Every structure is written in structure tokens, then in C-alpha cells.
Queue: 4 jobs
Job 1
Amino acid sequence: MTYLVLDSIRNQTQDALKEQFAFDVLMGFSAPSKYLPSKYFYDAKGSKLFEQITGLEEYYPTRCEFEILSKVGSELAEFIQDKPFEIVELGAGDGCKTKVLLSKLLESTDAFSYIPIDISESAMADLIVSLKQSHPTLTTHGIVGDYFASIRHLENTSDNRKLVLLLGSNIGNFDFPSAKRFLHSIWKCLNHNDLLLIGFDLKKDIDVLTRAYNDKKGVTRAFNLNVLTRINNELDGEFDLNRFSHHGMYNPRHGAMESYLVSLEQQEVHIGALEKTFEFNPYEAIHLELSHKYLLSDMQKMANETGFNVLKNWQDSQGYFADGLWQVNKDFPESAY
Ligand SMILES: C[S@@+](CC[C@H](N)C(=O)[O-])C[C@H]1O[C@@H](n2cnc3c(N)ncnc32)[C@H](O)[C@@H]1O
């Protein structure tokens, strides 16, 4: 079991990565409505904090999808008759739910390999170590890289049939047009009849949603504030974390949970690497993350519009979360996209 850091990341020196981070911060803080890209959540500390979030009482998505994946293993195996095959996971994180699925599949066949992909090198290193213990016979090749660069590797791995996993509510972090573009770019890298198992957080009681993103222990708050800590540590920023509060709120028009950091007062913050000072008005927000919620009909529409046929939907017992099994349809005309 190994992992590979994609050349596109490895070849970027630390300086170039820092430059990209600095550029994104500059763009985000110079915009009329300030924002930061959510991929910067996941340094080593951010990945650990996310793992803690998944265990929180209020954070239902992991529990619900765990329940689904614990049930679907043998049924899923029936959809993959071609052996050997490859399981490629985008944004694998700690893989805690995937391990259940892998165990269930291993009860039917061991003719598959597992290729987790994640932007966080520390998350990947931890995942490889834990898989060595939990699934010592499984052939695993991890890739550290950005989704967008990594999916091109789907074309090169082998001609074996592929099952791509996009679990959690990773797809929810994209707005609808970007989600469609992302799914269609996955479609382009796959062959006819390849499979995608994709998680969707469903629309539900707004209080349940709001609680999930505003936990009592403040772990989500710490996760969001960690982005400012990263700016302090990596870009010589001077953020005082006590002068920002975290807000997770549901926007019913967009059907999405939105995460913000809000400046508690008028303040100026210098960022050394940018040689620039940014002004924050009282109550001014920095937008950090979107997490779109879906109806089953939205999932169907998304599949239809990106070149996939829906084979099956599974839901947890509360109806909070759904995983769809989609099949690549290469008869889908590119012009229809
Ligand atoms: C919300 S977590 C979900 C983890 C796991 N799939 C789950 O369901 O629990 C998102 C994961 O995707 C990774 N990630 C976020 N943006 C990414 C990107 N642009 N490319 C690759 N991985 C990314 C993060 O490092 C993190 O491990």
C-alpha cells in the first residue's frame, strides 16, 4: 500500500503552493463580498477537525451514509460483474465509511483495487496507515492531488471497469452549474457502463440542518477559523481569531447551508506575504463554504444532464441522506450537455 503525490502538486515547490494560496486569499479578500475557497480547510489540522465533526451528535450525514454503505455492499457487488475492477474515491478523507463498503465487497470478491484521491497529504498518509491494519490484503494506491487534476488519471489507470466513489456531501460543495461541469468531466474520463456511487445530502427540516453546522462543542467553529490560522501561519497573517465569529445558516432560496466567518468589529488585518492590509467592517462576512441539499428529483435531473443513468438510490432510515448508483452512458450526446 502506497500513496503518490501527483506531479502537479510535487512539482509545485512549497513556494509555488504558497503563492497560489496567497493569490486566492488576495482574490477572495479583494472581492466586493469577501470569500475564501473551501479547499483551504484541509491542512493537517483541518482534516483532523473534520474527522471530529463526523463524530458529532448533531452531524448526521456521516452516520446516515454509514448506515447506507453498511447495507449496500452485497447488492453493489451484483452490479459489478466484470472482474477485476477498480474503486476510485474522490476526496476520500479518513475513509471511515468506505472501509465498511470495502469489507462488504471483499465478502463477495477480492478482484479489485482501491485508489483513494485526496488533496490533503496528511489525510492520505493516515488513511494508508489505517488501511494497512484494517484491510491488509487490499491493493491500494493513494493519490494526493486536487480532484480536477486527479480525475484525468482515471483514464490512465487501466482498462478495468471502474467504480468511482464521491461520498459525503462533497458534490454539495459545488453550485449547480459547477457540479454539472465536475460530473461531466468525470463522465469524460470514464468508459461506457463504468459506475459512480455518489452521496447527496437531502433537503430536510431546517433546524436539523442548522444544528449540524453549529455544533454545541464548537468543533465546526474551530474548523472554519482554522482557515485564518492557516493564513497566519503560512502567509504571515495577523488575524486575531477572537475577533471573528462563525455562522452556519440555511439559505432556502439556494437550498444550501452557507458557512461564514463574521468580523465582530471594525478591524484592519495585515497579511505579510501579500504586503497588504485588509479592512473588515463590523459584521462583514467572509463566505467559506456552500453545502447544497437535494431532492431525489434533483439527483435524477443532475444524472440525466451529465450523461449518467441512475441504476439505484439508497436512503438511510430517516430519509436524511441518499447515495445514488449511476452508470456512465456514452450514448449521451456531448452536444446535449
Ligand atoms: C467533507 S470531507 C469528506 C470526506 C469523505 N469523503 C467523507 O465522506 O467523509 C472532504 C474531503 O475532500 C478533500 N478535498 C476537498 N477539496 C478537494 C479537492 N479540490 N481535491 C481533492 N480533495 C479535496 C478533503 O481533503 C477532505 O478529505
Job 2
Amino acid sequence: MPSLFISRSTITDLDPMSAAADKYRTLRHKIDHLSAEKQTKIIVVTSALPLEGKTTTAINLAIAYGQAEQKVLLIDGNLHQPMIHQIFAVPNKLGFTSILAGLCPVEQAIKESGVRNVSLLPSGPYPTHSMDPLASVQTTNLLESLKKDYDIILIDSPALLAVTESSEWALHSDGVLLVIRAGMLKEDDMLQAKQLLDQLQIRIIGSVLNDTKPNSKISYYHYTGAQRKI
Ligand SMILES: Nc1ncnc2c1ncn2[C@@H]1O[C@H](COP(=O)(O)OP(=O)(O)O)[C@@H](O)[C@H]1O
Ligand SMILES: [Mg+2]
């Protein structure tokens, strides 16, 4: 992804003709192409480290799917440091954790984003008791039932090497999109993240090189399909 000169998390909606918006649409196309071969309906957006651009990628990819008239659900899977509700200015009192705790029905937790075809499931408050919401069968059941209502489900998650949440989400998904921030790339961290995904037999749908400079030697935008080595 190109560097967003004005840091705007929803650029694909605010400026659909921009180069960045176009790149997110290209990313959508590539994922759609893969879906023809293997079901790719629940995608976790992750990275080795924090601040690589997971949330930015998840949001803009969601908007790009919405623009293609696909019904999208964007889940804030970062239960520790949720951001989606802040960016879209929706409340986080009820969300994923509230559904799991039986505090509200699914319909009450899901919010409209204000962007065409894009719905949001905020994280909800962090669970105070020791339950591990992601390891529960309710999460599997919830995602299975949401799959019937949406064409694509994108899950924004925390960094793989920081907390276990990300790999737990990935186990519920059809694969992960690995975001790598140009200039932040450390080979050891990348290898460690890849090893973790391999050990858990999690499919890497592709990798996205984020925040590249247009005139740098590295490509302006880069997407690597799963079959190639990252
Ligand atoms: N391509 C980009 N160009 C400019 N700023 C970006 C880009 N991608 C992300 N950012 C900014 O970097 C910060 C971290 O991005 P974010 O998507 O929140 O990362 P993560 O979710 O991986 O922690 C945010 O302030 C975001 O606006
Ligand atoms: Mg984030």
C-alpha cells in the first residue's frame, strides 16, 4: 500500500479515486481470485508487530468490498486495544464479547458503519473474568451463523508476536492476510510470525507491504500470493 500522505483510515471511502483506494480494490480482486479456488470468506488481518497497518488495511479492504456491492462485516478482533469503534465513532458498550457473554443478541451488537454495505461488530468490553472468548465453541458458532448473512467477514486483529488473540482468530478463519510495514520489516520477526502460522497450519492468503514510498526502490504496492514465499 502506498504511504497515505494524509493519514486517513477510511481513504477508500473518502477519496475513492485516489491511488491508495485503487490499491485496496486491487487487493480485493486478488483475494477474490483466490476464493474461486478455495473458500475465503473469513479473513483475519494480522502482522508480526503492532503499528504495521492492520487496522488501516482491514478498514479499507472492507470498504473496497462494500464498493463492489458485497455485504461486509468488519469485526474488531483486537479485544485489548480496539480501534474500529473509535474510527467509525460507534459505541463499544456492546460488541463481540457481549454476544458471547449472552448480554445481547447479535443484531444489537452489530452497527452500521455509514459506509455502503459495511457493517461493524465492535470488540465489546474486555472480559473481566478469566474466560477465553476465542477458544470457545460459541465463537465458532457465531462466525458460522454470521457467514450466512455476509459475503465476506474481515477480522482486524492484534500483532501475532504480541498476544495469542491473533492466532486464535486465525484458527477460526479461512486464512490470514499478513501486513508488513515498509521500513519496519525485521526478518527475524517475520520468520517467527510465519513459523507460528505454519505450526498452527494457518493458511496465509497473502502479504501486503504497507506504507511504501512511491519513488523508493521497493515497489509502490506489493501483494504476495500465498503460494510464494514471504
Ligand atoms: N499506508 C499508510 N500511510 C500512512 N499512515 C499509515 C499507513 N498505514 C497505517 N498508517 C498509520 O499508522 C498508524 C498505525 O496503523 P494501524 O493501521 O493502526 O496499525 P496496526 O493496526 O497494525 O497497529 C495509524 O496512525 C495509521 O493511520
Ligand atoms: Mg490495529
Job 3
Amino acid sequence: MKIGPETTALVTGGDSGIGFGIAQAFVQRGARVVIAGLSEEALAEAANQLGGRVSTAVLDIRDREGWAQLAERLWADGGIDVLVNNAGVGYLTPALETSFEQWDWLIDIDLTGTFNGVRSIVPRMLRTGSPGRIVSTASIGGLLAAPGSVYAAAKAGVIGFMEALQTELWDTQIGVTILVPGIVRSNIANGLLPPGESQGVQPGGAGLDVLYQEPMEPKEVGERVIRAIQNDALYVVTHAEHGPLLQRRFDAIRRAVPLETPPEARAAVERMVLEHPIYDAVRARIEEGE
Ligand SMILES: NC(=O)c1ccc[n+]([C@@H]2O[C@H](COP(=O)([O-])OP(=O)(O)OC[C@H]3O[C@@H](n4cnc5c(N)ncnc54)[C@H](O)[C@@H]3O)[C@@H](O)[C@H]2O)c1
């Protein structure tokens, strides 16, 4: 789909880090942007920095009533074309150091928050009948074994949800893009802490000074997201260096596939359920764009 002055995007967590970079890329193309987040003050400051046609909305993505009210407000003002589910927290703690409350907190924000956005906004986008896109920010930690298994569970959940959602929306005018960032400059390391955690040190996680010594800039991520929307791409993988690492994972999965010939009837059922064009279509579009 095209991005320009006629586009309106909602970016959750648009006041900081990656969300700010995405909002910036929309603003630079003349689009209208609504940035949503937790703090009115931070949102106002970000809107001021962004310039352009930016408005703000205070929203906790866990709050379903808040989503309903925001949807009402957005459609009272013409609706939106792009929903960017980006807000999230990054608590990179090993499972055995994570309490049940901390698991609930992280899954509630990073995974359920994404569903809340889709469920509250996409039915209205479908009713408008014009082209639209859902972008959700996952993480390379959802595709590769990175520090923080609880975070990985949430982000792998976002990826599975979004891929399957793309099949469910296949015959509609709404497409799906999954953003898979590596390390990007942001406030995530100094962000919200889960219940029971009083200091920013992440137990068991790699030292943040090491992780954040040379992050990608959010602006670059924003530009990649816009290109992906314009190409109707299913994925944005931000870091070139993830290519060989992803290949190793896919090879490991491929090696686990039995080499025997499957029973024909069973295989036909499996293909019927699983053989969907979302991957082929994306490859074709990416090759066209290259
Ligand atoms: N920065 C990285 O290295 C990196 C890497 C991979 C994925 N991510 C993902 O990118 C997304 C953006 O994070 P970032 O790195 O820009 O961090 P950030 O802390 O700079 O921005 C996150 C934003 O989300 C908001 N937020 C947090 N909880 C919220 C809630 N419950 N409701 C509404 N807003 C909420 C924060 O207030 C903030 O504005 C997250 O989903 C994160 O998991 C970040």
C-alpha cells in the first residue's frame, strides 16, 4: 500500500525508541500519526519533537475499555489505515528467576496487548474497505534463542499470532507486517519494571552495557518499516547479520523432518491445512522490489 499525506497511522509506544522512529518515518511522508502511550507528558514532548500532523492518546495497551474509547475517537475523526502494535516491555529474565506475577505482567503487555489492539481496531479497518496494514513489533528473540526465555515466549507468540492472522485476513484489503528488530537504541533498558522488581538490573540477562554498545538507530528501523508496508512484506528483519543465524535455526528444524515418504491421504490433509501462499507471495513481492 502507498504511504502519503492521505495515510493515518496509530503507533503504540510512539513516544519513545522504535515507535518514535516509526512515527518519524510516517511524518516525513506527510502522514497523520496518532502516538499512543502511558504518559501524557512524554507523548506531548514526542509530538512536539515529531512536528507534522501528530496527535496523542493516553493508552495502556492492557486496558480493553481504553482501546474501545480510542477506537471511537479515531473513527470519529476518519479512522486509521495503519495500526502499529509496538508498545512493549523488555524484561530479559531466565524462566527460573521469573515469578508467576512477572510472567503474567510481561505476557499481558507484550502478547495480549497486541491482541487487544488487533481485536479493537481491525474490525473497523475492515469496514472502511480501503487498503490497510497491521504492523506488530516482535523481536529477534522471538525467532532465535536470545537472552530471556519469558520475553522470547511473548515475542514468538506475536510472530505466530501475526502469521496466522495474515492467513485469516488473506482475502481482505488488510495485510500484516511483523517487525523483527535486533538491538535498537531506545529506553527499553530503563523502562517499566515488573512486579517484585525494584532495580533496573536484569537478573541473568547479558550486561546492558555490552548489549547496547552499538545499537541500530530507531530512524533506520522506521524507514525499513515504511518500505515493508509499501512492498506488502510479511517481515521486516532489521539486522543483516541475523541472516546466517536464522539460517542455522531453519536448518536445525529442517534436519528434524523425517526423510520417509508420508502416507498420501495424511499428507494431503496436512497440505490442505498448512499450505498457504503467505510465504510465496511475500517472496515474490520482495523479489519484485529488489
Ligand atoms: N530496543 C530494542 O533493542 C528492541 C529489540 C527488539 C524488540 N523490541 C521491541 O520494540 C518495541 C518498542 O520498544 P523500544 O525498544 O522502543 O522501547 P522503549 O521503552 O523506548 O519504548 C516502549 C514504549 O512502549 C510504552 N509502553 C510500555 N508498556 C506499555 C503499556 N502497557 N501500554 C502502553 N504503552 C506502553 C513505553 O511507555 C514506551 O513508550 C517493544 O515491543 C520491544 O519489545 C525492542
Job 4
Amino acid sequence: MQSTSKIDQLIPIPDNLAKLTYQTFQQGKSYFGLAHKALTTQLLNLISPRVEIKSKPVPPEVIPKLQQRMNQIIEADWQDAERGVYPQSVLFDNPWSDFFRYYPVLCLDTLQIWQRANQKRYQEFSPDIAMDGYPSYYLQNFHHQTDGYLSDWSANLYDLQVEILFGGTADPMRRRILAPLKQALKAFDSTPPQQIRILDVACGTGRTLKLIRDALPKASLFGVDLSPAYLRKANQLLTENQGELPQLLQANGEELPYVDNYFHATTSVFLFHELPAAARQRVIEESFRVTQPGGVFIICDSIQMSDSPELKPLMENFHEMFHEPYYKHYITDDLVERLDKAGFTDITTEVHFMSKYLIARKPLV
Ligand SMILES: C[S@@+](CC[C@H](N)C(=O)[O-])C[C@H]1O[C@@H](n2cnc3c(N)ncnc32)[C@H](O)[C@@H]1O
């Protein structure tokens, strides 16, 4: 196996030990997520027993299915690193300094979140936040987050919140786009790697861009997002870590500020479930417009009813517990039809753990 971490070079680690270490690392994150949820629920009951967030009990037969899916994604992640899709060291990447800095803040924030959720206050923003120029569907406290996507406070807590929600599998889920991305870029083998342009739509705090950079260090990367605060956070993450800094722009995915056919690949991770149907279609059409003929568009988002009916109770709870106003429609939406309508062809889908992937090609003219 190709090994890139400095420790590996000093002390050769047998393959099975490295794999076991990775599995244990992931298991630790998963237990941490569970412990956090259990502890905060108990604490909330003590402090504020009247606060109640409704959720349906998850049928016991769903739990082993979920565990199986989690094991499968960890195995797939390991296998992709093993066959060199990305360096093995990426598997152990974790924003530790953010964790120690912001975990206490996140705990403090939880009470506010639960109170807002209980009182059904879904559009509450700090008075100093400029609200002009955003589409109205965006001005929401998604996941009951303090300030929605519109403050540095929210941007600093977001990755940690997602890590806890998915038991440490947010990056393994994001990394599932990398193998199909690299595969699709083989169509541009004669293009120098530095001239390959990849856009991430709704790049948020930049984690997907960082992962793409880990896998394709020479490519020119671009990211857009509506949130200035999340772009600041992305800029910080991508500057702190080695590599070319992607070009980041504040923009709506429905109106991408790029000329036609500019990118060899376009990606979008965890955006579509937060858009109303019409905006979903417009983002797909814009992604089609800016992608080169022969290029690829890859979506990673939540599972849907059609691919994971056995996880219906979890999807229903997600929509109830985390303020996700467009999720109910999203889980029954036909994204293949939308991609097809925009002009994409060769559309394939994959499902890994709690995520669905759509890989679509813009046909050559
Ligand atoms: C759930 S987060 C996902 C962020 C990131 N892709 C990730 O993997 O964590 C959704 C992101 O979409 C952005 N967003 C929502 N609607 C958007 C739109 N119409 N155009 C651009 N960004 C949008 C939000 O600001 C937020 O950063």
C-alpha cells in the first residue's frame, strides 16, 4: 500500500494494524456522538424539563441496518485510501483545535437551540446580521442553528454539529465523491492537471474542497456559497492546511458567476435537501451550464425514500427534529429526472450510509 504519513515512514505500520486503528478512530467518534446526544438530553431534562422535541421512536430493527451501513462506509473509505484515491493520512484528519475550542461553546449553544425549537422560532437572527439580498428560503435557522448560516458563531460550530449528528462519518460520506470524480476526470487525461478546474457549489466551511485538494492536489479549485461567514471559515481551513488556496466567492448556486462550460467537474455536497424544489432545478441547470461537455456533475446529499425505504423512520425524525423545511419534499423528489431534464446523461446513483450520490455527465456536443 502507498503510505504517505510521516509516522508510517519512520515506523512501518502493518496494514491490518493501520486499518484497525482507522476503524477504532471512527468507532470512537461514533461513541462520542452517541454519548454527547445522551448527556445533553439528560442535562436538558434537568435544567428545562418542559422543553421537548418530538421524535418518533426508531424501530429496533433499524439500528443493526444503520450499524451495517456505517461499517460499510468505513470499509469503502479504507479501500479507497488503499487503492490510492486519496492518501491514507486523510482518513485520520480531524480539526482537533476547533474541537477543543468550540465543543464547550456548542454545549452552551444547545440550550438556546432547544428553546428555539420548542417555541417553533425558525427565523431568528442576531440584530447585527445583514439580511438583504438572500433568497427568502435561505433565511431560516436550518437545524435550529443559532443565526442560521449567517454568523461566524454558526460557522465555527457547524462542522462539529455535523460530526456529532453523523457519528463522525461526515467526511467519509463526503469522500465518496472522490473516486467517481477522479474516474470522470480521466476523460481529460490530455489536459495538464493544473488546468483542471473543479467547482464546489455550496462549499460551506470548505471541507469538501479540502478533501478534493487532498485527492487532486494540482487541480484548480473553486467554491461558492451564500454565506460570507461560512466562506471566511472555509478560507481559514484551506489556508491552515497545505495546498493551493481555492478561489472562494459569495454566490447563489442558482446564478453561478462563471461563463458557460468553464469547469471540468462540478460538485455539491449536502445542499439539495435544503432547497425548495424550484431552486433545486435551477442549481442543477446552472451546474449544467458551467460544466464542460464531457465533464461531470456529482451530487452528494441525504438518502431518499426510493433508495432507502427501510430508513423511513430516521428520515421522518430528521425532518421533525432538525428544522429542515424542504427535506420532506426532498426525500421523494426525483433527482435523476431533474438532471435528465437539465441535459445531463449517463446518470448513475450510489448510496453510502446516510447519503445518496448522483453522478451525471454533460454530453459532448
Ligand atoms: C448543509 S450545508 C453544506 C455545506 C458543505 N457543502 C458541507 O459539505 O458541509 C449547506 C450549505 O449550503 C449553502 N447554501 C444554501 N443555499 C444556497 C444557495 N442557494 N446557493 C449557495 N449556497 C447555498 C449554505 O450557506 C450552507 O453553507
